Amino acid sequence: MANWIVLLVAFASVNLSLSVRELEYSTPQSCKELKQTYKITQDGLYYLSTPSGVVYQTYCDMTTAGGGWTLVASVHENNLYGKCTTGDRWSSQQGGSPNVPEGDGSWSNTVTFGTAEAATSDDFKNPGYYGIRAEDVAVWHVPNNELVGRWKLTSFLRYHTETKFLNNYGGNLYNLFKQFPVKYNVGSCPANHGPSVPVVYDVGSATSNHNLYGPNIRANSVPGFITFRAINAERAAMAICSGVKPTGCNNEHCCIGGGGHFPEQSPRQCGDFTSFDWNGYGANTEWSASKQITEAAVLIFYR
């Protein structure tokens, strides 16, 4: 009975009048369902449930591009100088070892971590990441340590897909990355990249997004896309290239969430934001990304 009690509190916060019996038998499993079935239109934190009944809290964007977007993950670089060290949950907390080519394997496993409320201060992954069946994704870039109520106000990039591409990959990123493992030596560049999907910008633009990366990587990528499982020249794999489609093989300078081994070390690569600091932290010169995008969490939504 705990499920409907928790949900009753969530619904009461938006003055939605539903009986206990209705809540008990109508547990929402996504923000899209909350919007369509219960007519909730306010952004904020809500409780959802997995098909097996696990209740969890996450953020719902109920207003952007029709609303109904469920936050399922955030990638936050806690220490760019610590290459694949504690806290790099989306790459490897065990160092860049060839013995662990997939690292922590978070892109294709059911381990969860963090809290929705702290999604800009720490890595976050909830059961919706693998439990929700979705069609599109949205991405927000929000400055580190911002409070939930300020995420939308302070985000400097927000974009989403509209092609329903996830229908071709099992309905979520968990299944997509089963098909395209984020793992060292699983393929070569550029032959074995995963899909590149065009995006529509809600805040910012393809040009402003592109300019947040260094000029060298801008010359080796095309803006206006989100790319999954990009492999670099050293055969290391990165999960997501935010806002770009690589045309070269130095993808560690614009992609996040690497696998477990990056051969070019000293250390130069590895970590959740791989090599954004190649020519200096936040320098936005040569291969280095800007400080703005380096010091921002990447929030990932489904709809």
TrEMBL record:
GO CC field: extracellular space
Residues covered by the Fibrinogen C-terminal domain: 22-72
Calcium found in the keyword field: yes
PROSITE patterns membership: FIBRINOGEN_C_2
Region (Disordered) location: 88-107
Bias type Polar residues, positions: 88-97
Alphabetized GO MF terms: metal ion binding; oligosaccharide binding
Signal peptide: 1-19
InterPro entries documented for this protein: Fibrinogen-like_C, Fibrinogen_a/b/g_C_1, Fibrinogen_a/b/g_C_dom
Assigned keywords, A-Z: Calcium, Disulfide bond, Lectin, Metal-binding, Signal
Protein name (Swiss-Prot/TrEMBL): Fibrinogen C-terminal domain-containing protein
Organism per entry: Pangasianodon hypophthalmus
Classification of source organism: Eukaryota, Metazoa, Chordata, Craniata, Vertebrata
